[in-house]
Amino acid sequence: MIALYAPYLRSALRHPPLAAASLLIAGLVAGCGPAGGPPAFPPSPVSVVTTETRDVPITLDYTAQTAGYREVEVRARVSGILLKRNYREGSTVRQGESLFTIDPAPFQLAQARAQADLGVAEAQLQQAQRELARLKPVYEAKAVSQKELDDATSSERITRAQVESARARVNEARLNMEWTRVEAPITGIAGRAAVSEGTLVSGPGVLLTTVTQTDPMYVIFGVSDRDHLALRRDVEAGRIKLPADGKLKATLKLGDGRDYARSGAVNFSDVRVNTQTGTSESRAEFPNPGNQLRAGEFVRIALSGAIRPAAIVIPQRAVLESPAGKFVYVVNAESKAEARPVEVGAWVSDGWVINAGLKPGERVIVDGVLKIGPGAPVNVTEPAAPATNGKPTEKPAASPKEKPAAKPAVKS
Question: The domain that contains 296 carries what CATH number?
Answer without folding.
Answer: 2.40.30.170
